[in-house]
Design goal:
This protein is of the alpha/beta class. The structure holds flavin mononucleotide (FMN). Flavin mononucleotide binds next to helix 18.
Length: 400
């Protein structure tokens, strides 16, 4: 046995300056979306985390989509030159760096005070599409300012009171949005059992049962108290309580005629989100939409809803080629996005994934999520033997 020299040990020992911030340390080490979710859970009050993480009923719709993604088996092609993999594509004709966009989420500043300003600016910096919700906590005008130059879409709920919708469409048009994404799966709100059990109200109220939870998350509470109060920034001109407002925002009488009305009213691109059947897809493309998002709202509306990934091949076959088909729900890995593209999706949207990043670490958390997705997509493309997304085909996957 010989005693090693210090110079040999020094080469092996790559001691880094310790990072004393436990949140940053955890983020730096996160290797998957489930790691990011765990950090989010640690730093966010339970009711808020559950509002994001949960879905409706027995939460079967989301579970089924996740299970289907897990059952994907990739079928790689070897001996293909993949020294330069290119994961970019276009969403409605606009170039994007990855086939993954940030879908609309309401109440985003409740998850973390940085809210849409963080999520939209990270999307812009990474050249990804971003969709602002009607129930967002940043106004359409402010969002265009904080994420200027981004590929920003606006998600619309057509209100019972059409004057609200007219007003919103005027504002969104003058703020320069290219695309309206109309959500059609929300005639009424879904039944979210976790929120009922947690006594969640929007905005959250301090009750005896929430006080302890809040006390365990002082940073979140401090930030919530020292930043702009939560509000539905797009709807602040309309009067009434939050409950009254929400009951006006969802119109249970919406039909395909309203989609045709919107098609005539809105000069830009129009996408329908929350599509759950081949028949509806055909109806929508006949009404002139430019795109369809197969979605069950991440399982937050109708529980036991169809699994978007299962609908995908039939919908792609049923609509004209110039109607782009997207999908969302349960995406937790770049590999899920690749599987959807292989079956004919133009791309996918994520909801919880970027919110987990936001809750885990504000803007740096969202950046980390994109970093993970980028690495997962490019590495898996190389391992699959595809250089561009256009090279992906149904032959690359099968379900086990
Ligand atoms: C907290 C939260 C709020 C949401 N708010 C909206 C919304 O205001 N409008 C909408 O069309 N979809 C909304 N969604 C649905 C998402 O756009 C998307 O369909 C869903 O999150 C996709 O599933 P995933 O979270 O598993 O990626 C929301 C989702 C979450 C998690």
């Amino acid at each position: 046995m010989r005693i090693p020299r210090w110079s040999e040990i020094r080469e092996l020992a790559q001691f880094e300056t310790p990072n004393l911030n436990s949140r940053e340390r955890a983020l730096a080490r996160a290797a998957s979306l489930s790691d990011i979710r765990a950090i989010a859970k640690r730093f966010t009050p339970r009711a808020v985390f559950d509002y994001t993480d949960g879905s409706a009923g027995e939460e079967l719709a989301l579970l089924r989509q996740r299970q289907l993604f897990r059952s994907v088996e990739f079928r790689p092609t070897a001996l293909v030159d993949v020294s330069n993999v290119d994961p970019s594509t276009t969403f409605l004709g606009t170039p994007v760096d990855l086939p993954i966009g940030f879908g609309p989420t309401g109440f985003t500043r409740m998850m973390h005070h940085a809210g849409e300003e963080a999520t939209a600016s990270v999307a812009r910096d990474n050249n990804l599409a971003f969709v602002l919700s009607t129930l967002g906590t940043t106004s359409p005008e402010d969002l265009q300012r904080v994420a200027a130059g981004g590929n920003n879409w606006f998600q619309l709920y057509i209100s019972k009171d059409r004057s609200i919708t007219h007003d919103l469409l005027d504002r969104v048009e003058s703020a320069g949005y290219s695309t309206i994404e109309l959500t059609i799966d929300t005639p009424v709100g879904g039944i979210r059992r976790r929120d009922i059990r947690n006594g969640l109200t929007v905005p959250p109220k301090l009750t005896v049962s929430t006080a302890l939870d809040m006390a365990l998350h002082p940073t979140w509470v401090w930030n919530a108290l020292t930043h702009e109060p939560l509000e539905f920034a797009s709807l602040k001109n309309s009067e009434g309580t939050v409950g009254e407002l929400l009951s006006r925002v969802f119109d249970a009488s919406l039909t395909i005629d309203d989609v045709s009305w919107l098609r005539d009213r809105w000069p830009g691109k129009l996408v329908a989100k929350g599509v759950q059947s081949v028949t509806t897809s055909k109806e929508l493309s006949a009404a002139g939409v430019d795109g369809i998002v197969l979605s069950n709202h991440g399982g937050r509306q109708l529980d036991r809803a169809p699994v978007p990934m299962e609908l995908l091949p039939d919908v792609v076959a049923a609509v004209p080629e110039d109607c782009e088909v997207y999908l969302d729900g349960g995406i937790t890995d770049g590999a899920d996005a690749l599987a959807a593209v292989a079956l004919g999706a133009r791309g996918v949207f994520v909801g919880r994934a970027h919110l987990y990043g936001l809750m885990a670490g504000g803007r740096s958390g969202v950046r980390k999520v994109v970093e993970l997705f980028r690495e997962q997509v490019t590495t898996q493309m190389a391992l699959l033997g595809v250089r561009t997304l256009a090279d992906l085909s149904p032959e690359h996957i099968r379900f086990r």
